[in-house]
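All the exercises in this workshop are built on plain-text protein records. A record pairs a protein's sequence with a compact description of its fold. Read left to right, the backbone structure tokens trace the chain's path through space. Once this layout is familiar, the rest of the handout is easier to follow. Here is such a record, shown just as it appears in the course material:
>
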Amino acid sequence: MPWLPAHQAHAIERVSVTFQFAEPVPSKAWQALLNRASVDLPLQGFNVSLDEMEFNFPQASNFPGVPQMNAFVFGPDGLVPQGQPQTGVGGKTFRRVSGDSVQEEISLLRTRFIYATTLYDRWAGCKKRIANVLGLYLSAVLSSVDISLIKLEYWDRFVSEESGSNAVFAQLFRQDSKHVPEFIFDMHELWHTHVGYFLHTHDVAKRLINVNLDAIDLEERDATNPSIRLQRRSVGIYTMVQDTVRQDAPPSDIDATMVALDGMHAILKDVLADVISEEAARLISLDAKAQS
């Protein structure tokens, strides 16, 4: 196979999960949660923390007889805020860093929680890790706010053994895929595609699927002669499913959110199986029917 996955057993470079809330977490509960996370997460290996700033711009007037004032106006450099924004700490981002590499990241914001990792092995292990590091905080806020949106994202990569324009995309992608435009099979230069659409489903209010493909050249040194620089054609595959939750049936606890993620993971496996060739799928043991 002239295309190789980013890792020996899989092609995944990064995974991210987002839980967005219908309204901001109440201030008192929010401060208690941040204080607890600042103690607990360093004990789980998150050795860097950053404050996330919150910006609140002046709102338009709603009083009778007072002229309507916009919070933004157009200026020479684009949108310009009117008045001075109020700022404050809107949350914290915790990172597990090794050398120059960010291996895991958790962002706890009043309106959403985000978990991302580059240490993906299999879905079962990833889901367990999400529950372990976010479960306590999700449980704490779900007593006062509802989840309004859940998003699951994957970044996969394959690298050609051929240099630059010699790469053959028909060996990596399915030519009958509904997610892969036909023009890329005749391309010898770099390219990008974006596909997005909504799926009809009764499970959630709205489900969005997004598939981005990016062909770029990676530069590497020759293994036998480091003075020689080689270029390899590489393809990044971004897949995303985003569920807008039904207002009458939001996930009520961490178990319900994990069930929702299982379903979203299965959808993205089906999407990836439609994108890449059968030979590429075998390299990463992709079986759309298996939970892995």
Residues 1-19+151-292 form one domain. The CA atoms of residues 180 and 264 lie 21 Å apart. Confidence is low (pLDDT under 50) at residues 59-70. The longest helix spans residues 254-275.
